[in-house]
Fold this sequence. Notes:
With about 90 residues, this protein is of the alpha+beta class.
Amino acid sequence: MSIVAVKIKLMPASPETNLKEVEENVGMVLGKNNVKNPQFEIQPIAFGLKALIVMFGWPEEKELETLEEELKEIDGIGSVEVVDMRRAIG
């Protein structure tokens, strides 16, 4: 079983979105999906807008699209984009 390292950019619905609250909700979704070693980073984009970057380990044989759909359903998230995915182990 191989693990892939995934990096996802979550854009908020507006600059006023509370990213710490979004991070907590994302953490719950990731925990429910047994994600390995999630790490969060807030990245400035432009004009006060910031993105939440999430990095984690994901089983290669498991579909990532289902997780993306769950993340899109979180209140305050405008878009979800996988920006990097590469085999980490195996």
